[in-house]
Write a structure and sequence with these properties.
Organism: Ottowia oryzae
CATH superfamily of the largest domain: Medium-chain alcohol dehydrogenases, catalytic domain
Order of helices and strands: EEEHEEEEHHEHEHEHEHEHEHHEHE
Domain Enoyl reductase (ER): 11-322
Structural class: alpha/beta
Shape: globular
Protein name: NADPH:quinone oxidoreductase
CATH topology of the largest domain: Quinone Oxidoreductase, Chain A, domain 1
Number of domains: 2
Helix content: 25-40%
Pfam family, one: ADH_zinc_N
Number of strands: 15
Strand content: 15-25%
CATH class of the largest domain: Alpha Beta
CATH architecture of the largest domain: Alpha-Beta Complex
GO molecular function, one term: oxidoreductase activity
Length: 325
Amino acid sequence: MHAWLCENPIGVDALTWKELPTPQPAKGQVLIRIQAASLNFPDLLIVQNKYQMKPELPFVPGSEYAGIVEAVGEGVTHLKVGDAVACLSGTGGFATHTLAPAKLCMPLPKGFSPVDAAAFIMIYATSHHALMDRGQLQPGETVLVLGAAGGVGMSAIQIAKLAGAKVIAAASSDEKLAFCKQLGADETINYSTEDLRERLKELTGSHGPDVIYDPVGGPFTEPAFRSIAWRGRHLVVGFAAGDIPAIKINLALVKGASIVGVFWGDFARREPEANAKMMQELATWYLKGKIKPVIDREMPMSELKAAYARMGSREVKGKLVLVNE
């Protein structure tokens, strides 16, 4: 097998493509021949030693991937050799093969593209858990999606529309906002050229958004929260802008609003039955054509460093996927 190995987490340039022995699965594991793996923001942080999870060195990055089971370890009963699966295990995806915990593997129904599957779990599970569970989104409410042209933003637009909400998409360029409109966004805000608070006031008739989906953080969190509706819910999804913002908590008081943390990974671990039910619903929506990840582009696994560079340029609309030929 071959894999992109991180032996020193000082950045993307330190990754090397190496030939390694193909491992055999231990108890509870499966060996997967990787067909496709998506590139997510945590995949950048982890090779820079900036992510909350710090794997033992050396490690193979690539949190999310899809492929075919080639071997199963002791005690694995729900998967067999030849099964198509998707997995979000945190590491291992940027390779030709990987070992994965069987309990983290999602069996793929017939008709589920491996490229789509590799770009599916993280964004749709995060957005469904955020909007429907933590945000308790109701039909007719208004959702503001920050960073709306990215992977999680894309999925948030689709799920919010399925829930019957009005969606305001905010992003950094008119090109990205046109993309959001194609996904179903009702209104848009270019926060590079428009005042976020004034535009929200205009678009909502001073009511404000009922739910704010915030994977960005940085300078946009406070003005968005200051604009929130009475009894609004601000969903803290991530900090793609890099800076973790501080909000004066008196704002929550005067707005009667909630600041709600979203940590899908721990939800899946702590509430596995609820997570499994959610994943089944998402897979059903995909097969019915109700949701589908938009793939910015497919790139050969050998071009991982170029994929990282494209992600860092903030030009990606949807998801980048690396494929093994």
